[in-house]
Amino acid sequence: LEVGMIYTIYPLILTFSGLVGAHFSDLYGRKRTLVIGGLLVGSSSVLLALSVNWVVACGALFFRAISLFYSPAEITAIAESINETKKATGYGVYSTVIKVAALPGPLLGGIIYQGLGTIGIRILFLTLGLVDCFKAVFYYLFLTETLENRKMCLNLMEAIQEAYKGLKTSVSLLFSRKLRSLVLFIFLYYV
Length: 191
Prior knowledge:
mainly alpha; 9 helices
């Protein structure tokens, strides 16, 4: 039951963090969102590696779901970096790279777990954290911001207000006339 609850809560957090992250990306820029999100996701992997029990691991996992708020910024940065007539090809390449990179993961994880036990899994999470942080640094150094005149500072109260605005904006867009049929079809497909 507990595992089922964790696997229900995690995608629920991902859903809301993505809606908020999309709004933040529009407001504060793609590059800043990607860098901050990448560093937070990397930190969450390190926390998972250092977890001393399942409660801490669940907390780190939920922190990871919140940290993945940057996902819409990544997809949007790709869309804004690709020639208008090649967008579908660009998304196809992006999707393929992710799937090919993820392909050996379960087998590699099983082999490492069989050989090293939980120490091996901890090493994998540490490695993942370093890779995520490296990706954030890479974005910082090489990614060009595609949005001009974005807001520069953010305090905690402003972040909470913007998160609420982002959810409202995203929900209204979700039910907009242009997206309604597509969203309904995708929802029914996955249910």
